[in-house]
Amino acid sequence: MDKIDPRDVAAIADLARLECEQETLHTFARQLDDILKYMDKLNELDTAGVQPLYSPVRHGTAFRQDEVNQEYSRDEILGNAPDADGAYFIVPKVF
Amino acid sequence: MNEWHKQTLTQIRDKLATREIGVQESVQASLDRIAATEGRILSLLHVHAEQALAQAREFDAQGPQPDCPLWGVPVVVKDVFTTKGMPSTCGSRMLESFVPFYDAEVVRRLKQAGAIVVAKSNMDEFAMGSSTENSAFQKTRNPWDLTRVPGGSSGGSAASTAAGHTPVSLGTDTGGSIRQPAGFCGLAGLKPTYGRVSRFGLVAYGSSLDQAGPLARSVRDLALTLQVIAGPDPKDSTCAPEPVPDYSAALNHRRDLSGLRIGVPAEYWGAGLDQEVREACEQALHVVRELGGETVPVSLPHTEYAIAAYYIIVMAEASSNLARFDGVRYGLRDKTATELKDMYVKSRSCGFGPEVQRRILLGTYVLSAGYYDAYYKKAAQVRRLIRDEFEQALTECDLLCAPIAPTAAFGLGEKSSDPLQMYLTDVFTNPLNLTGLPGLCLPVGLGTTSGLPIGFQIFGRAFDEARILQAGHILEQSLPALPSPAALSDL
């Protein structure tokens, strides 16, 4: 049984703010299905009681003073914006 | 200067420091080598000839700076690092016109040490791939055989350094992306311990896995470069407050491998290994024993689950990290959209290539309600099992060793149509990233069938890069040096 079909892919794409052509939805569905079936391999393992490891960091949270060491100009920060008016980032209307 | 492109970083650095060669001469030699070879291998995305030469003129006028260990040395940096005033595209249309106003911490440290960034190298888009074929701009060729891939995702850095553009380049290793291309192109490459090197300014892909490191033509050169880039950074809280030893000095502390227990994990040496890879790597084991090292059979029984766990985790992290590309502050924007959500969707859909979209979709799926425990949490639990068994093996042994990949470099197009087949090529490199431990790639010879370089890796304990480099350096001295890359030997 397929774990994922083109309709599921379209729903996930919407969550991820992506859109695909019909043909691509079918290709992605087939590829994602293959990959997810491969990942089912993990179910061979009993992991009850195993603490998940989300990060390999071993040291505690590093604290430092919250001080300004480096400032950038507004022009530098707006310099890569697709649209700006010299003071703000400009985006299309929200609704 | 004759044969500049065959010299090591240490040799070039020493000649610059004594003014045996000038900085302009050295940068020009680098640019000339790029001009001669780049048409064949397509390893670079941007060459900064004028800026590099202008900087070289200033350096020559000032004279050598004894506090700068890489003074005047030209270097290549993977395009995943931000470089002030230079494009930093990550191999993606999304960032095609992005010119950062700050340097990544590793780039800042290289420059502070006197290095001159001459070029940015090609890569799989956002470092997602194992062949550099996922670059939005060009497919890099392997300097040993132009019909083969250089590996990935740091394939541009590997091909460039193998071609002799510069004596060292920087790459990043999220699932093998320094070690595998180093192996495919006949270079030494180091993935440091997670937390050894700052990730500030490294465009994030898998934040719990990404680590920057050098690719070079000798282990001594890796030691020299690691010295410059390693150490805590207040701008990256995952960067560890660990002291940084003198790596170059450590290389002189050992003459052989006596007293070292070197584990040989059965799961990396079983069926499925190409005959020529087995021969070259077993020969390296033989040399290890001749040098006094004790090879010990060990087992890492969860190795077969590493690819599945790795890809779930890396895709989950990628889907979160790449949410920042929204067409607002930087990057590509679709100008046809008239309202905000549509602008996000259209910008992302035309800015990201197919492999990046696949990974975002899968990452979104495994993190979504109802699937989070079954995939993401499960993978993180398996990650713990894998790290525990590596650490257990490394209490019994000082180091572990394995081939880089089951085969030498594969052909362009050979695996690019089936994403799962491409993922499976990472079988010997993914597990290390899950653990955070360091690993070295060392070329151990040419395959008897393919004539291509075969890579061998040495894993070690957390923050024990010095021992890995020591062992790699000694082994390197006892193995025959590789000839020049075959597809460029006429240049």
Task: Give a structural overview.
The complex is a heterodimer of chains A (95) and B (491). Chain A has a domain at 6-44. The longest helix of chain A has 18 residues, at 22-39. Chain A contains three helices and no strands. With 95 residues, chain A is an all-alpha fold. An eleven-stranded mixed β-sheet of chain B has the order 1-3-2-4-6-5-10-11-9-7-8, with helices on both faces. Chain B has a single domain (4-301, 387-488), classed as Amidase signature (AS) enzymes. The radius of gyration of chain B is 21 Å and the shape is globular. The model of chain B has no long low-confidence stretch (mean pLDDT 97). In chain B, strand 2, helix 4 and strand 3 (116-121) form a beta-alpha-beta unit. Helix content of chain B is 39%, strand content 12%. In chain B, helix 2 packs antiparallel against helix 3, helix 5 (155-163) packs parallel to helix 6 (179-185) and helix 7 (219-229) runs antiparallel to helix 16. Chain B has helices at 9-17, 23-41, 49-62, 105-112, 155-163, 179-185, 219-229, 247-251, 275-290, 306-321, 340-351, 354-367, 372-396, 419-424, 430-435, 465-478, and strands at 44-47, 74-78, 116-121, 168-172, 188-191, 212-216, 261-265, 294-298, 399-403, 439-446, 453-459. Chain B is built from 16 helices and eleven strands. By secondary structure, chain B is α/β, with parallel strands linked by helices. At the A-B interface, helix 1 and helix 2 of A face helix 10, helix 11, helix 12, helix 13 and helix 14 of B.
List descriptors.
heterodimer; A: 95 residues; mainly alpha; 3 helices; 0% strand; flat; B: 491 residues; alpha/beta; Amidase signature (AS) enzymes; eleven-stranded mixed sheet; 11 strands; 39% helix; 12% strand; globular
